Amino acid sequence: MFKIENICEKISNYIAKELNFDDDKKSVINYGIFAFIQMGICIVLVIAFGLIFNVTTEALIVSFTISILRKSSGGVHSKSPERCAIIGTASSVGMALICKYINVTLSTVILSGGIIFIWSYYIVYKLVPVDSLAKPIKSIERRNKFKKVSIKILSTYLIIIISNILCYMYLENFRLLTYSLCIYMGILWQVFSLTKSGHLILGKLG
To answer: With b meaning 16 or more CB within 10 Å and e meaning fewer, what string describes 99-113?
Structure first.
């Protein structure tokens, strides 16, 4: 069975050898290649299964909502990249199906959004960044930076939601409410992964 790490290691070793890089530079290249391949695989899987279940747009919204916020906020990690890809795909497509076929009203979207964002801002402000034991973030300056970035990302999501709601009131396009629910789902999944309960439950899945 192929491993993403093995592919990345071979590519980074080749590049480092050709360019005469030291181990530190090789590690940076290896991490960059790994992140790129992992992201590509996840996107392809989400698109593929999104097409099968006819929720491609919704699944991509959920997936990107999670991944963009996760980059600065951290959270629980899977035991392997393969499991990460499987869980990420299953959760994104599953939440997309819920969002697409659930019947909601504008008032429900507004009320639930208020609750979700209040809770999310609180958790992000209190816990972010949630680092790993293998790579702890010790610098106070870096920790504050990640927290500020996460809050800005949440605020961007809030602006998008408000824009969707205003457009819905004018256009009455139900897809705008569906897309808003997809963002909610992505936020809830990622913010929950920052908590102790999230680490316990999602950690067992990964």
So the answer is: bbeeeeeeeebeeeb
Please provide the size of the chain in residues. Answer: 206
Within 10 A of 203 (CB to CB), how many other CB atoms are there?
13
Predicted TM-score (pTM) of the model is: 0.88
Average pLDDT of 84-110?
Answer: 93
Q: What distances in angstroms separate CA 40 from CA 36, 51, 149, one per listed residue?
A: 6, 16, 24
HSE-up of residue 48 (Cα within 13 Å, Cβ side)? 10
Contacts of 105 by beta carbon, 8 Å cutoff, 6+ apart: none
- Name the band, by pLDDT with cuts 50, 70 and 90, for residue 99: very high
CA distance 154 to 192: 14
Q: How far apart are CA 176 and CA 182, in angstroms?
A: 10
Greater confidence (109 vs 13) lies with: 109
Cα-trace Rg, the chain: 19
Report how far residue 55's alpha carbon sits from residue 182's, in angstroms, rounded to the nearest whole number: 11
- Whole-angstrom Cα distance, residue 109 to residue 185? 12
Give the residue ranges of DSSP H helices in 74-139: 81-101, 106-127
Query: What is the token pair recorded at 59?
Result: 């699944």
Give the span between the Cα atoms of 66 and 2, in whole angstroms: 26
